[in-house]
Specification:
Structural class: alpha+beta
Radius of gyration: 26 Å
Largest sheet: 9 strands, antiparallel
């Protein structure tokens, strides 16, 4: 396993001796080293040179040189950097020379930073691993559990997790990970009458801080009209129950007090979301977006004690303050009935530094609040569809033409929104984002924000480690081509290329976890770059003037069967697979469109006839959009950062062929 060897060498080469003291100080003071107790039935081996401990479950297949399942306990070291820097280093070692099969899942557990990974290592062996790191006082330590068998991983990962988390004692849990202590769950318990697990507290400290002369210390968020409100005097949290919910254990809007927070808006949202999910298992990928000045994520997950929950986590960051709001329901009908009212309550709040949302309009892209270190979102990026794009005449638009890169395979994450390529022999991702219309100075916006909001959610950087290096290139057919090399907050290598043609812009984005992976992958990726030229194609019709006569006649509900990505609950929320599920498109006579899985929009065919398209644009912009029909051509443009575009030929008004799926009219 690359991580073990590399980190062991690093430990031996360190100028500072590793600690020999063991155990958590009974006085509660920070220990010099965390000691992991060997789980019952497991065996262990200690490398005398590096002091690395290898703990093996009974199912492990052990040879003289390796094992296919181990908990690796590294010795503690002196470390002057931050918790995030230590964790990033540990993760880089764990993933060195490996190819990720899915994005890392990052979270926190007490005083630990935790990343779950699924990869193929340098020897070609598929494995799942969990990387833990702790940083306290002047010390830091890392742990890894891995297994090549999914069944062995599923059985023993929770055992390893308990062993590691139990090693984090007083003096470490309070200061590890470089984070301010999070109030425990009892401090933000829901009113006594509830039995649902309460929305967890947002990360941060609850001590008051000076918010600045012109900035509020807290946002005032009013519960929707008619909702029953209770306030917890101990925590200061407010809980609002919708009128159709029998109790707050079925549906509740939790409004938490503001906290002092020094990180970025994205960091606060990520930590709050991780706390909200806790040990829950996602049942489908989370949907990320914005609501006014709040970052928002909708999640559907299973609770540790059983039962499923739908939740929307909202967070805002301004000045030195941050605040969280969570809407949670235990029933799908309550979510459908009340989520829009909860969302409207959030949209009514003006976050300092964020542009006010237009009444009834789709939420605009949010920027990080003052004091955040992440680059602001581009002013011209929109999360809603641009109905004015295109033309009804013979106008044309630019199109990127290029050759597929060698040693890459085509991935499926981007759908129609962008083309995704994955390195076949190295962890390297390349995405091509097609031309879209822009307004304002797109080149200045790129140099200010790197157009982060144009990038697919799975590949957006959480921040940059230093100023990007910009370079001008020449690309046939393009008015301008500007490249940016930069490191993100995890020290991953990025290259992003902006291509401009008139008022249209496209992006090519590359990401690799290490400099080695970047250099190896770029040798093939550069062949795609060298092949790029800008051509022309007929522009889609304008969507500003409605769907047209043929489009209005096409209005109705269409049903098909489509592949859906779901979590494998036997292996954990991060292990995804595909299954065939019902999929729907609802087209309105005024040109609006919405798509969803499993049930008709609104939950039934009757509800679909009265569907709230405006609410869907606010809550789920990536699946809400506009359409038009010109001749026999159907054009659909969704909202969200990527503005997915779909084109199809209509030969029968009762049948649609979209993305290779046949849809039949239901009404």
């Amino acid at each position: 396993m690359p991580f073990v060897a590399a980190l062991a060498v690093a430990a031996e080469a360190s100028d500072t001796p590793t600690a020999t003291a063991a155990g958590n100080d009974a006085s509660g003071q920070a220990p010099s080293e965390l000691v992991v107790t060997l789980p019952a039935g497991w065996t262990q081996k200690i490398d005398p040179a590096s002091k690395v401990i290898f703990m093996r479950p009974p199912e492990a297949q052990v040879t003289s040189h390796s094992s296919d399942a181990e908990l690796v306990v590294m010795p503690a070291q002196d470390f002057a950097g931050t918790a995030e820097e230590w964790h990033a280093a540990a993760l880089r070692f764990a993933e060195r020379d490996a190819r990720l099969l899915e994005p890392d899942r990052n979270t926190t557990e007490g005083g630990l930073l935790v990343s779950t990974t699924h990869l193929v290592d340098a020897a070609g062996t598929e494995q799942r691993q969990v990387v833990y790191s702790a940083r306290w006082a002047t010390r830091a330590q890392a742990f890894v559990f891995f297994a090549t068998s999914p069944a062995v991983f599923a059985k023993n990962a929770p055992i390893a997790d308990r062993a590691i988390t139990q090693a984090v004692g007083p003096g470490v849990a309070d200061t590890a990970a470089g984070q301010t202590p999070v109030a425990d769950g009892n401090d933000l318990a829901a009113p006594p009458a509830t039995s649902m697990d309460s929305p967890p507290p947002p990360p941060g400290t609850f001590e008051p801080s000076a918010p600045g002369a012109d900035l509020p210390a807290e946002l005032t968020i009013e519960a929707p009209p008619g909702w029953a409100v209770q306030r917890d005097p101990k925590s200061g949290a407010t809980y609002a129950k919708p009128p159709d919910a029998p109790s707050t254990d079925k549906a509740v809007l939790g409004i938490f007090p503001a906290v002092a927070f020094d990180g970025t808006a994205e960091q606060f949202h990520s930590q709050t979301l991780a706390a909200a999910l806790g040990q829950g298992r996602l049942l489908e990928p989370a949907h990320h977006g914005v609501a006014g000045g709040f970052l928002a994520t909708e999640a559907h997950y299973q609770m540790p004690k059983g039962g499923t929950v739908r939740a929307v986590v909202y967070t805002a960051r301004w000045g030195s303050r941050a605040q969280a709001v969570v809407f949670v329901t235990a029933r799908d009908d309550l979510f459908r009935n009340d989520a829009l009212a909860a969302n409207a309550a959030v949209l009514a709040v003006q976050v300092p530094g964020a542009a006010p949302a237009a009444p009834g309009a789709p939420a605009a892209s949010a920027t990080a609040g003052p004091g955040a270190t992440a680059p602001p979102a581009p002013a011209l990026a929109s999360t809603g569809p641009n109905p004015g794009a295109g033309a009804d005449s013979g106008d044309t638009m630019p199109v990127l033409e290029y050759a597929d890169p060698p040693n890459f395979f085509r991935g499926g994450t981007g759908g129609n929104a962008y083309a995704e390529y994955q390195g076949s022999d190295i962890n390297f991702t390349l995405c091509v984002y097609p031309f879209r219309e822009s307004q304002g100075d797109i080149r200045a916006a790129f140099q200010q924000s790197l157009l982060r909001d144009w990038i697919g959610v799975m590949y957006q950087e959480e921040g940059v480690a230093g100023p990007p290096r910009f370079t001008n290139f020449t690309t046939p057919g393009a008015d301008a081509a500007i490249g940016a090399n930069f490191l993100d907050a995890r020290q991953q290598e990025h290259f992003r290329l902006l291509l401009v043609s008139g008022h249209w812009a496209a992006l090519v984005d590359m990401i690799a976890p290490t400099a080695f992976a970047y250099q190896k992958g770029f040798a093939s990726a550069v062949q795609l770059l060298n092949s790029i030229h800008v051509g022309r194609k007929a522009a889609p019709p304008s969507l500003a003037n409605g769907p047209g006569p043929q489009g209005a006649a096409l209005a109705g509900l269409f049903q098909g069967m489509k592949q859906k990505t779901v979590s494998n609950l036997m292996l954990g929320a991060g292990y995804l697979s595909s299954q065939t599920a019902l999929h729907f498109y609802l087209l309105a006579a005024d040109g609006r469109v919405y798509r969803c899985y499993d049930f008709p929009p609104g939950g039934s065919e009757a509800a679909a006839r009265q569907f709230d398209f405006a609410g869907a644009e606010r809550m789920d912009p990536g699946n809400a959009g506009r359409f038009a029909v010109r001749g026999n051509q159907l054009y659909i443009r969704m909202g969200g950062p990527n503005q997915d575009e779909i084109t199809a030929t209509v030969t029968d008004p009762n049948t649609l062929q979209l993305d290779g799926v046949a849809y039949q009219r239901k009404f």
